[in-house]
Amino acid sequence: DAGVIQSPRHEVTEMGQEVTLRCKPISGHDYLFWYRQTMMRGLELLIYFNNNVPIDDSGMPEDRFSAKMPNASFSTLKIQPSEPRDSAVYFCASSRHRTDTQYFGPGTRLTVL
Amino acid sequence: KQEVTQIPAALSVPEGENLVLNCSFTDSAIYNLQWFRQDPGKGLTSLLLIQSSQREQTSGRLNASLDKSSGRSTLYIAASQPGDSATYLCADGGSQGNLIFGKGTKLSVKP
């Protein structure tokens, strides 16, 4: 298996623009997690899905953030409009079962100017 | 709010030394404790997962322990090598699968 795939790897955008981050989980994994990593706050869980259904989005910082999982092999995290404080590395992870080992993608480094 | 703390934030050791990384957590109902490795510019790689009913897990030169009563976990690395240089993160795993991460210990192993 190719592991968790994220795209793009780097994204530079201007404040106010819409940003869409993409994730393909490992085949057969029922759980998908979105995290954000910053120097100040470390790694934080934003939202996670089970069988394509959002289970807990309490970590989503604002209404500007939204996430979808239209099928078992694809998820998006959208920020609209983006702000400089959204600059961070965004990771997607998947696991077979709820409390199993999570496998992380390489991350998307987002810079909002 | 549950918290995970890792001290020290950075550690430098000579090659060949045995070392211990520390992790403390406030969650008395922890479901599992996970250790990850992160290389610069890369994602996280899972190293060890300890269930709350277990006391330790071993993989090669790595040994992780869990003491729920004291809220502590340690990661022991034997005979360290320059390739072990990375940031090590521990995470409190809840029963819902959500992970609460510490900020990591950046390890540097000098040849």
Describe it for me?
The complex is a heterodimer of chains A (113) and B (111). Chain A is mainly beta and 113 residues long. Chain A has no helices and eleven strands. In chain A, strands 2, 4, 5, 6, 9, 10 and 11 form a seven-stranded mixed β-sheet that branches. A four-stranded antiparallel β-sheet of chain A has the order 1-3-8-7, with no helix packed on it. In chain A, a hairpin with a 2-residue loop joins strand 5 and strand 6. The termini of chain A are far apart. The mean pLDDT of chain A is 95. With 111 residues, chain B is mainly beta. Helices cover 0% and strands 56% of the residues of chain B. In chain B, the strands form two sheets. In chain B, strands 2, 4, 5, 9, 10 and 11 form a six-stranded mixed β-sheet that branches. In chain B, strands 1-3-8-7-6 form a five-stranded antiparallel β-sheet, with no helix packed on it. At the A-B interface, strand 5, strand 9 and strand 10 of A face strand 4, strand 5, strand 9 and strand 10 of B.
Can you give keywords for this protein?
heterodimer, A: 113 residues, mainly beta, seven-stranded mixed beta sheet, 11 strands, 0% helix, B: 111 residues, five-stranded antiparallel beta sheet, 56% strand
